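Retro notes (design track)

What went well: tokenization of the new backbones is finally stable.
What didn't: we kept losing track of which sequence belonged to which structure.
Fix going forward: every design gets posted as structure first, then sequence, in one message. First example under the new rule, 120 residues:
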């Protein structure tokens, strides 16, 4: 029997194109068809709230999830905030999209390291 998970999606919200949102929603739809409970920020977080309230909503959702799935974008400040929260709670990370990286330390490299660190 497949385990049902609570999943938080780390992704860009501000300035996200309709095409990008559709890609996220298609991914989430597949997860929900499998029975998972998914928190997608542009859908499930009140984006009209104050910035601190948005951060608190996301932090609570991350705390209560089983794992986070990330569509990494180095330009997105919200992505970095949510990553920090998820890292602090030692959440399992599933990398859906990452940026290409070369030698040396970088967030994209750390994301790959993290996804291997907390594998269940």
């Amino acid at each position: 029997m497949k385990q049902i998970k609570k999943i938080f999606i780390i992704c860009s919200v501000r300035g996200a194109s309709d095409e990008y949102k559709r890609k996220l929603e298609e991914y989430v739809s597949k997860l929900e068809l499998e029975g998972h409970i998914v928190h997608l920020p542009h859908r499930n977080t009140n984006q009209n709230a104050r910035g601190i309230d948005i951060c608190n909503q996301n932090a609570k959702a991350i705390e209560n999830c089983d794992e986070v799935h990330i569509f990494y974008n180095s330009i997105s400040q919200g992505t970095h905030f949510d990553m920090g929260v998820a890292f602090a709670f030692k959440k399992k990370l599933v990398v859906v999209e990452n940026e290409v990286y070369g030698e040396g330390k970088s967030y994209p490299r750390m994301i790959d390291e993290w996804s291997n660190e907390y594998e269940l």
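Added context from the reviewer: The radius of gyration is 14 Å.
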